[in-house]
Design brief:
Number of helices: 5
Shape: rod-shaped
Structural class: alpha+beta
Helix content: 40-55%
Number of strands: 4
Largest sheet: 4 strands, antiparallel
Length: about 200
């Protein structure tokens, strides 16, 4: 009887040891798998972040200037090829180059504006722009234009209304309401044919 008891105890101990070892091996397996999966996810996240940073830092965004449009006709305009937004962008582009000037940026902006002037209009308007630059530099003045409305409803014409100011430092020397009527063509991009002020 003692032998039977001890053999049962021995059998139970062996079974407990076997169960303990199985549990231990399962525990090790789960710990190993958890660490393995966590490591893979961490490496994947690091690769993803590095890739994202690389794309953001090396991606070039090309913005086409608003005056470089394809050849258009009045029919294209009526069919919506020259979108109002594009013409609004061109109007703002024009104002930034011709009106929003400081002694430091005037020459560069005016030179850029001259590139969108029609050849015949260039002869008339380039000297006006040059005098504008000289006046700003000589008097250390700034010139600003605050747009109130842009009318793009008539093909070949932009009407820009707003207030033009001239200032030295914080002192505003002149402030007046202006309406500019810009006549343009769009043969190989927008070209300014004429500018009238009212």
């Amino acid at each position: 009887m003692i032998n039977k008891k001890s053999s049962i105890n021995l059998f139970n101990n062996k079974q407990k040891n076997r169960l303990f070892k199985e549990r231990l091996s399962l525990k090790k397996f789960f710990v190993f798998n958890t660490i393995f999966v966590a490591t893979i996810l961490a490496v994947a996240n690091i690769v993803l972040v590095i890739s994202l940073v690389y794309v953001v830092l090396t991606k070039k965004i090309y913005m086409q200037p608003p005056f470089l449009l394809k050849d258009t006709t009045e029919l294209d305009y009526k069919n919506g090829v020259l979108y109002e937004e594009t013409l609004n962008n061109f109007a703002e582009f024009f104002i930034s180059l011709s009106e929003n000037l400081t002694p430091e940026n005037a020459e560069k902006r005016v030179t850029r504006l001259k590139s969108v002037l029609d050849t015949n209009f260039y002869k008339e308007f380039a000297p006006v722009l040059d005098r504008r630059v000289q006046e700003l530099k000589a008097n250390n003045m700034t010139r600003s234009f605050y747009i109130s409305t842009i009318d793009t409803t008539t093909y070949g014409t932009l009407i820009i209304k707003g207030i033009r100011t001239k200032a030295i430092g914080q002192n505003i020397l002149q402030s007046q309401k202006i309406e500019m009527v810009i006549t343009y063509v769009s043969d190989s991009g927008i070209t300014i044919k004429k500018i009238e002020e009212n």
